[in-house]
Amino acid sequence: MMTIVVKTFDELTNQELYDLLQLRSAVFVVEQDCVYQDLDGKDSKALHVLGLKNDKLVAYTRIFGPGIYFEEASIGRVIVAKDERRHDYGNQIMKASIKAVKDHFNETSIRISAQCYLEKFYTNLGFKAFGDTYLEDGIPHVSMMKE
């Protein structure tokens, strides 16, 4: 069972911030073998969606209101710990993030920059791909929208 908590940057404890940065680094830098600048100056403008299992961070996203990352509201840094992916936490954290965009920003239009191999995952959540694929930090991505 995963518990979802949504916090502003200032509401995060030092431990929560450390845990989410550690998880992002473990997956996006180490597992995906991608050297990139994760600390992009936008975390302080985001809402952080934490998926906790027995008080341990196992899933995470960050969400933005319109005009901060894209013109539309957005969800990014979608992540599930490698040893927890068999539990459907990806769907749970995304559904909670979509709800949080609606609850906090009163928005239903959401734009994401999705890794291409996850296009079907996001399509099943109601997102539609548009435009050409592109490289972001050396990984193929596609823009997707949910209305």
Summarize the structure in words:
A seven-stranded mixed β-sheet has the order 1-2-3-4-5-7-6, with helices on both faces. It contains three helices and seven strands; from the N terminus they run βαβββαβαββ. The chain has one domain (3-108): Gcn5-related N-acetyltransferase (GNAT) (Aminopeptidase), CATH 3.40.630. It has helices at residues 14-31, 89-105, 119-123; strands at residues 3-8, 47-53, 56-64, 73-80, 110-115, 128-136, 139-146. Helix 2 (89-105) links the parallel strand 4 and strand 5. The protein is globular, with a radius of gyration of 14 Å. Helices cover 27% and strands 36% of the residues. The mean pLDDT is 93. It is of the alpha+beta class.
- The CATH class is identified as Alpha Beta
* Average pLDDT reading: 93
Mind describing the biggest β-sheet? 7 strands, mixed
Order of SSEs: EHEEEHEHEE
Which structural class is indicated by helix and strand composition?
Answer: alpha+beta
Overall radius of gyration: 14 Å
The global form is: globular
Question: What would you give as the CATH superfamily?
Answer: Gcn5-related N-acetyltransferase (GNAT)
